[in-house]
Amino acid sequence: MIRLSGLHKSFGPLQVLKGVDVTLEEGKVLVIIGPSGSGKTTLLRCFNLLEVPDKGGISLGGISLSFDGKRLPQKDVLALRKKTGMVFQSYNLFPNMTALGNVMEGQVTVQKLSKEEARKRALKLLVKVGLADKADSYPHQLSGGQQQRVAIARAMATEPELLLFDEPTSALDPELVGEVLKVIRELASEGMTMVIVTHEMKFAADVADTLIMMDGGVITEQGTPDQVLNHSSNPRTLQFLNRFVDDDRT
Amino acid sequence: MDDRKIQIVIDSLLPLLKAGVAFTIPLTLVSFALGLLLAVATALVRLSSWKVPVLIARFYVWIIRGTPLLVQLFIIFYGLPSVGITLEPFTAAVIGFTLSVGAYGSEIVRAAILSIHKGQWEAAYSVGMTRIQALRRIILPQAARVSVPPLTNSFISLVKDTSLAATITYVEMFRTAQQIAAVTYEPLLVYSEAAVFYLVFCTVLTVLQDYLEKRLSRYSAG
């Protein structure tokens, strides 16, 4: 069980998270939706401590941390990060390494695996995301969709217990979105535990076990996709979802 | 040009080239290599959160950039003996030039590190790297590429600045030219000849820069 409890986070005077509780069972997919500025990306970044909460607690993969505004010991931060992998909106592949090098990097540098072992595992992952033929390409030689699939392989390479996705298709050309969502769907069906921030409502409805709607730094609604998307009575949720109905028409 | 002048030019070719290869180039290479290490170390300290070392690094850069290199060389070579530290001309020159390259270079390296997108740090952290691992594997290799043109600038400046070592009795290429000019009474001729040698050395470096930039840019578009 992955549990975040009572998370608070401020950037200067701006309160971004105002007491957020999340629980997620292993093998399940949690999707976070909400308007921009609602705190959903900050919440996601708390899972691997790219943002360290001011208050609250995280328990994940046998590690329990609580936050009180003091600096965390580096070893706690690293321990938690080793349990998670992250896929970024703008891919953030390492431009000085090939696709294969990107996927091998964490295994070699962090896990201290031998190069041969890492290469074997990296190639397997590239096959999985459909890019075995691009192993020797540098990121700038790949399309956005291909880069993001390499990024997914890189995130999985260190065998994390939890994968985090920060709007993984927002930077992509529309015709490339499908190939990335397909890979994420496959991972979901294989029982990978994931937290996904996305604006793709149809995808969210398909892939989520639990859907969370955030607004103003708090969770305003939580439930199955059907409950949140089709049977909500919360006016903010309805207003937010309405925008996507409008989008579809245009 | 009469025969005598042509003869002087020809006669001084070899001594100048020898002084250049045996003294100017080694002084440049050693000072630049050490200076580069000092520059990277200083830049990393400046970017750290250790309060006292940051202050020391800033103080060092402030002093070196704010005083003339010639004055620094004089202090090291002529000044230090009065507190009991007597240095060989070569050693004194290397110390002076290393400190200079380290100070100016640290700002280049610092700017190059800061120019790398924050997403690269986050990606490195997300796979579990420490700050040192992220620097070594991800950030510095990318920053190196950004620093090649400005660091080549420093290198070229250094080649020419080594002529200042002549003033602290180090017989490099310029000092050799002075000696030849003194006996031949042809300063225009001999100093111009020395200038051509400096030009050739710097041109070689420019070609090297192009090569290095091409090599390091193989992984980036454009």
UniProtKB/TrEMBL annotation, chain A:
Domain of life: Bacteria
Gene Ontology CC annotations of this record: plasma membrane
CDD domains: ABC_HisP_GlnQ
InterPro entries assigned: AAA+_ATPase (IPR003593), ABC_ATPase_HisP-typ (IPR030679), ABC_transporter-like_ATP-bd (IPR003439), ABC_transporter-like_CS (IPR017871), MetN_ABC_transporter-like (IPR050086), P-loop_NTPase (IPR027417)
Membrane disposition: Peripheral membrane protein
Gene3D superfamilies: P-loop containing nucleotide triphosphate hydrolases (3.40.50.300)
Keywords: ATP-binding, Cell membrane, Membrane, Nucleotide-binding, Transport
Localization in the cell: Cell membrane
Protein name: Amino acid ABC transporter ATP-binding protein
Cross-referenced PANTHER family: AMINO ACID IMPORT ATP-BINDING PROTEIN (PTHR43166), L-CYSTINE IMPORT ATP-BINDING PROTEIN TCYN (PTHR43166:SF35)
Domain ABC transporter: 2-241
GO terms of molecular function: ABC-type amino acid transporter activity; ATP binding; ATP hydrolysis activity
From TrEMBL, chain B:
Keywords, alphabetical: Amino-acid transport, Cell membrane, Membrane, Transmembrane, Transmembrane helix, Transport
InterPro entries per record: AA_ABC_transptr_permease_3TM, ArtM/GltK/GlnP/TcyL/YhdX-like, MetI-like, MetI-like_sf
Positions of the ABC transmembrane type-1 domain: 21-209
Molecular-function annotations in GO: L-cystine transmembrane transporter activity
UniProt xrefs under Pfam families: BPD_transp_1
Keyword Transport attributed: yes
Signal peptide (residue range): none
Domain of life: Bacteria
Subcellular location: Cell membrane
Transmembrane segments: 20-47, 59-80, 188-208
Membrane topology label: Multi-pass membrane protein
GO cellular component: ATP-binding cassette (ABC) transporter complex
CDD domains (alphabetical): TM_PBP2
Family: Belongs to the binding-protein-dependent transport system permease family.
Protein name in UniProt: Amino acid ABC transporter permease
